[in-house]
Amino acid sequence: xxxxxxxxxxxxxxxxxxxxxxxxxxxxxxxxxxxxxxxxxxxxxxxxxxxxxxxxxxxxxxxxxxxxxxxxxxxxxxxxxxxxxxxxxxxxxxxxxxxxxxxxxxxxxxxxxxxxxxxxxx
Length: 122
Fold this sequence. Notes:
Blueprint: E1 3-12, E2 15-24, E3 35-41, E4 48-51, H1 53-61, E5 65-66, H2 68-90, H3 95-102
Parallel strand pairs: 1-5
Antiparallel strand pairs: 1-2, 2-3, 3-4
């Protein structure tokens, strides 16, 4: 059984939406598949792509061969993931700034006399 990672077309006329699926190489384009690992909307802004890279790597490790288009989509998803990680590493707040932002000031702390939910006795 030869597996392929390929696109299965969904959507309406002139508005395609593709599923990235793992399926038998000999099945029809929109036929049976083993696993659905993502979606691709080429008409959406910036070609919206959602792909489970860990599952793609799993199937490639088991011998599934991606089509040329899916191979380029996987590369695009990896570049996007690396870019997000690089941005996260480039702009982390220092620990002192992070703790200063999360620690409440003395004015914000409720006092024992005016604890929320308690009413003053007359």
